[in-house]
Design a protein that fits this description.
The complex is a heterodimer. Chain A is built from 24 helices and 20 strands. Chain A is α/β, with parallel strands linked by helices. Chain A folds into 3 domains: 168 residues, 3-Layer(aba) Sandwich (Rossmann fold), CATH 3.40.50; 157 residues, Rossmann fold, CATH 3.40.50.1220; 216 residues, 3-Layer(aba) Sandwich (Rossmann fold), CATH 3.40.50.970. In chain A, helix 7 links the parallel strand 6 and strand 7. In chain A, helix 17 packs across helix 18. The radius of gyration of chain A is 24 Å and the shape is globular. Chain B contains 4 helices and 9 strands; from the N terminus they run βαββαββαββαββ. By secondary structure, chain B is of the alpha+beta class. Classes of the chains: A alpha/beta, B alpha+beta. At the A-B interface, loops of A face helix 1, helix 2 and strand 4 of B. The complex binds flavin-adenine dinucleotide (FAD), thiamine diphosphate and magnesium ion.
Chain lengths: 573, 167
Amino acid sequence: MPKRTGAQIIWECLVHEGVHTVFGYPGGAILPAYDAMLDYPIRHVLVRHEQGATHMADGFARAGGGVGVAVATSGPGATNMVTGIATAMMDSSPIVCITGQVPGKLIGYDAFQETDITGITLPITKHSYLVTRVEDIMPAIKEAFHLAKSGRPGPVLVDITKDAQQASTEWAWDPAGVTLRGYRPNRPVTRADIAAAADLIRQARRPVILAGQGVIQSGATRDLLALAERIDAPIAMTLLGLGGVPASHPLNLGMMGMHGEAWVNHAIQEADLLLAFGMRFDDRVTGNAKTYAPHARKIHVDIDPSEINKNVRADAAIVGDLRETLEDLLEGLEAADHAEWIAYIHSMKGDAAVRDIQKLPDNGHLYAAHVINDIWRLTGGNAVVVTDVGQHQMWEAQYYHHETPRSLLTSGGLGTMGFALPAAIGAKMARPEAEVWAVVGDGGFQMTQAELATAAQEGVKVNVAIINNGYLGMVRQWQEFFYERRYAATPLRSPDFVKLAEAHGLEGYRVETRAHVSDIVERARAADGTVIIDFRVEQEDSVYPMVPAGADLHAMIRRPEPSVLAETGADPI
Amino acid sequence: MHHTLVALVEDKPGVLNRVASLFRRRNFNIESLTVGRTAEPGVSRMTIVIDSDQASAERVTAYLYKLVNVIQVEDLGSVPAVARDLALIKVAVGGHDRAALLRVVDETRAHIVDTGEQTITLEITGEPPHVDAVISRLEPLGIIEMVRTGQVAMRRGDTALSAAQYV
Ligand SMILES: Cc1cc2nc3c(=O)[nH]c(=O)nc-3n(C[C@H](O)[C@H](O)[C@H](O)COP(=O)(O)OP(=O)(O)OC[C@H]3O[C@@H](n4cnc5c(N)ncnc54)[C@H](O)[C@@H]3O)c2cc1C
Ligand SMILES: Cc1ncc(C[n+]2csc(CCOP(=O)(O)OP(=O)(O)O)c2C)c(N)n1
Ligand SMILES: [Mg+2]
């Protein structure tokens, strides 16, 4: 067997795992690995902050369906990753973070740049490893990839001491699969569970399917549509589920929850059966859990047993992979007809033509909804859109109609501002042929705008639409609704984003009227490099409808009349 | 209500921390937690007592399974089980207290494990309520120092909890 250093083994393993791109930032404790990297077919993307590396790895994973890899040094390099790791954990995104650690004999002595990063990240990783011996590097990395992508995916951290990177050993790749005693991610679904669920489905008169990110993660789109069509059940989407079912499919109702469409939430509240597929009943989805879907029995399919009965009690639970479960379910289900129920839900929508915001006359103001709807129209709904967190995120969900899985990447569970730009860069690296848009607020953009330099240096092309409302808009909205318009710390002054783009050698545009949106969007699409567009939108616009945090799901705040902008939700019911 | 959970875990660095951290993170209160070896090399056994209802105990069990190093979990709340707690108790013995103390020893299956000039140290092993009862009888005599191991427990009958099926 040939001799390899620990540093070489790291890259050997990554290459064997199919990795070709990593996002990272060097430093003393990871220096041996960086030195060895030059001899391997790895594209290293030098980020400007390690948080950016984790979001890029996350975006890479969400867009491409593989595992994203981020690399950092010990101490501050590792702690800078914390937000990105927590973001990936909440949304079950498979990333592997590799950090350097001080030499083993210095651990525990408060050595220079020593941080207990496995301790710090314990509750925000699926699992983690502290590797102090060169022989343990391969098992740790193999297990890390296995854990990150199997079962319910998630982030795994591998912390490797500098001396383990420097030590040598005789080494060969072990092609054997990983087995872990305490880890049984894919339990076989039992027949009895399937039969119980099928029974409930047969009895249902007013069923609603709740489609979550699990649909995308298990690749279950086709089976889900087959089931929905067979049993004639409408589908409501979670934020993270968007794209899992084509927006244009007649059974797709749209997004549920806090900023979901009114008719979707009403349908859920009136349903007699909810089929929760790969979604975890987040509190932004249920509102007040006590009054949630009071007439409905619930079937919950989730690969993670701890999600069953966590937020909502299930009448039938199936623990297992969604796609396999749907295949099994489909076998025994006969066709059903719920035309009346579906017609009733559609009647709550009102007239679709009224809701088409393209048809609204231009009143001289620029609304975020128009900007996003135009981007949707001009990209033919085929872009990968990565959003940040805030009002623009919700408008994206409402006005960009996603047709394919992995075409909306957004931080749902943690709601991490600063996610969009780095995650978009990561997404573009995973899918170079895709058109990638970052839709980001003026606030969140400034949290990670340093990664513009990364995009410029790497020659990565993403289109950045800054929805610039001069406020931390979502917080301002809460202040407007719930704090008597006392705008504490939400007005926001920003730099000249066009000049900022230019300072990076990138193209930048400012758009202040609706008439100019299309032209500039097309220019951005045609440009070779990253383009920033500063959309100066209406400053005090709010996202409607809105279920106040903890309120009943049917108790939505509606857009006040007279309305300048058609609400996505139809007339108040 | 008390729930006694038994977890077979891999004997690896940091596993105790992962388990303890889980209870803190998920906002459960641990009444007692013990760790020790099992008959199988590389496998440790934890006995965790929590104060929770049945639904919460089920949630904790599911969360425990999410830990990669946890091999198997059993909730002994729902099956007949033997539970034991051990206490070492140092009691002051001035004059007539000694007779009172010896009466407690006689009547409660406690053992004297050490005698000092002014103290006697007792060992009591038994069901946790029994240990509680002995302690309350000793309290009036003046407990100077006490330690309890926390509960260990095992299912009654021929069924055995073993990690052997998961290798
Ligand atoms: C400002 C803001 C507003 C928001 N408003 C809304 C809103 O109005 N509506 C809304 O829906 N969300 C909203 N969210 C997002 C919300 O917080 C949650 O992130 C989101 O609802 C979670 O969606 P999910 O349950 O589908 O995804 P996840 O949280 O990713 O859960 C997916 C579930 O699927 C399971 N799963 C994974 N893989 C498989 C598989 N192979 N087989 C079976 N199961 C699997 C997982 O175990 C998990 O339980 C908002 C977020 C922010 C930041
Ligand atoms: C890192 C982080 N800090 C704070 C918040 C709380 N927060 C949620 S939305 C929001 C406002 C976002 O403002 P902006 O980026 O301008 O987007 P807008 O809502 O105006 O579209 C804030 C501060 C958060 N989600 N993330
Ligand atoms: Mg803003």
